[in-house]
Amino acid sequence: MTSERQIAANRRNAQKSTGPRSRSGKRRAARNSRKHGLAAPISGQTEYASLIDKLASKISGKIADPGIRECARLIASAQLELDRFRHVQIGSIECGRMFEPNDEQHDEGPPEGGHAIGVDFVIKRSRSFREVDEAEAVRRALPKLTKIVRYERRAAKKRDDAVRCFFAAAAMPKPAKGGR
Predict the structure, then answer these.
(1) In whole angstroms, what is the distance from residue 1 CA to residue 86 CA?
(2) Arithmetic mean of pLDDT, 173-178
């Protein structure tokens, strides 16, 4: 049981943590959930509606029961979200593979017969780049990947729950018509 002293301390701490107070701070905090767009459900986006319908019809097959069809839509939606997160993860790793400057091959001065302000000189003066190896690319992408995992787990749980719903609805016997 919580003591009176602990309750008083909790109340004092709660007074200190009231969130942003300025107008700009409140605006900035309101945008936190939209930083990367991964929190937005895929089912609310019109560009995915046809993909969800196609996948749901493949999952449910020829079954016309609306409960089963809805479970199939939930499975399809969650699976497409998982696919989206995997594409974002791959993209993060690929961004980590971006080239980095290679200082060893840096040209100095204009080319022979070239002008200091010409395009050739600018190209020659620009650094050469080397590709980053796979391990370094993953290391660079790790902070972003750890954030994506949270959303991926949520989508996987939604899909697993929808699969259980689908099989439970498919296993239920149909009620008899006209009677109790």
Answers:
(1) 45
(2) 60
